[in-house]
Amino acid sequence: MQTGDNRNNIGLSGQKLVRSIEREGKEYEKTYIYRPNFEDKGLMLFLSYDICDSTKMKTHGKWMQVVDLLYEATFNSMKLWKTNGDEVLYVENIKDMPKLMSLIVDAYNYMLTLQGGMSEIIPGVFLQGTMWLARIEPGLDAEHNIKLIGVENDEFLGQNIDEGFRLAKNTTKSVMTLDPKIVFLLYEYCNSKTEKCLVESFGQDLDIGNHDTIERLLSHIHFLGYTKCKGVWKERDYPIYWYIPDTQTVLQYDEKFKGVYVEELIEAEKPLNKIRNIVLSVGLKDELKYFEEVLSDAKNSQSIRRAYTSSKLYYTVACCSPFSGKIFVAKRSGIRRHLKNVWDFGNCRHSSLDTEETILQTYRNDFGVDIALEKDFERGGSIIPFAFCNTHRFGKPQNSLLCYATIIVEDPNILDDNSLLKYIKEKAAKKKYVDFLFLGAEEAKKFKCITFQDVEKDSIQAIKNENKAFPEQMGIMYFGKTIEAAMKYFSEKKQK
Predict the structure, then answer these.
(1) Which DSSP state fits 8?
(2) Residues with Cβ < 8 Å from 106, sequence gap 6 or more?
(3) Structure confidence by residue, pLDDT tens digits, 329-355
(4) Which of 27, 28, 39, 432 has the most neighbouring CB atoms within 10 Å?
(5) What global pTM score does this model have?
(6) Is 395 exposed, middle or buried (0-12, 13-18, 19+ CB in 10 A)?
(7) Quick check: 138 and 36 in contact, CB under 8 A?
């Protein structure tokens, strides 16, 4: 993980900034265009997802699939900043407390969702997260942090950027580590009615419902202790806070911080009210006052109860006929909320309890059939993901993993595709699907594929009940390619 960039290595040449970088003993230059009037100035929230024990993970043959999943997945509540080895970073301009609070919860939930998808590829893969705040200013003589516009990706430089990378060294699997400035703002906001804030108007939008929400959020933040972060706070003791909504199921029993069991630290932890004295004693008053001024701007204020739904993971399963080798597809009902009349393969939402059983039970309920998922038995029998894509649901971008399966037939009266389809029509959930087919690659070419833009538009219109049914013979995204690839896979498997 990078620890930031040395601002002494930046030189001004006309309207360009040239940064010298040394990697693996070699020095090279990367040029950024300096633009003083950029949009992303003000208070920026940074998010890092990093794969735990990535070196150990790379002893598995499918480790690149895990990294690809990390790179391809999209946390749509924030903008992608860059990827860096086994790490992906996001950034977002923050203008109100409700958004900050929602992003903490959403980012954590999405981390667990993404982690679940990775563990289907290699069991035991974990992610760790870090969140921190930085004030971004225009100008090369900016006192705080600056943004450079690059050809490949933008770059953020400054003390707080470095601080975030240092902080990230103090997190662990399934945990989101929070910058102490974030914890301070949450504490001030929660207690703004009873304690004097740095800015008088800070917390004026906090009502009873919001107060209950932020109290729950604060109850999930745990003080672990102090550490030293090189170059940060003049290397005075730096407090570490972990956001963990469910310590019982997330933390390992032998998890330690600075040699002490985390379970013991949490049981003995003190209230968060010490955070105010900590941040003010290290000279952050002016910086935090600016933060509160930005976040208390009345025109930016939003209700915390706004429907921020975190990105979720869905499983789509292309099921092969045991008779013809063709792929099963189903036509969505016209009374469905999303994608009316579109042909798809069936899907189910990821469950953290038992993913395989959730998928199997969903296909029993929807189509009345049992299926045998394709698994990698050399890797503990985990479900094999064959593709990943972004989709849209409930007005929010979502993610989907494609799996393969074979339909299991035990009824002696089912002898071919036609009798199997007849059986499915009798057993299927009528309100969800109205027609069923087995298609080969050539037959699938008669169907048109909807695009991501179609799905996104339909999802947004569905919230207002304004979406219309799609025309006949419209297949879900990658409809034909999925059928072709799945048939090829099962054909090759049969020949082995």
Answers:
(1) G
(2) 75, 77, 308, 309, 310, 311
(3) 999 999 888 899 999 999 888 755 567
(4) 432
(5) 0.60
(6) middle
(7) yes
